[in-house]
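Extended Data, record Glycosyltransferase 2-like domain-containing protein
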Amino acid sequence: VYRNHKIGLAIPAYNEERLIGPTLDSIPDIVDVVYVVNDCSLDDTAKVVCERAEKDPRIVLVEHEENQGTGGGIITGYLRASEAGCDICVVT
């Protein structure tokens, strides 16, 4: 919580197994919750996110059942952050 505001982070992801780990490792403590929206990746993106989520409870994996593109991932991330009561949602 930053100045009484809950901060969420939405990360749309498609075939990002090589980059998603370092990205998640670099998230500052000011962020309260992280929604990684896996957009039907064909690689191990979801596996890497789950491994990081075991170490960092702020990380939440959201799976799309069909590919919706970057915009769809952003919308899903924003909606999840809104449902969780986030005052601010940032997309990366």
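Summary. Strands lie at 7-13, 33-38, 59-63, 88-91.
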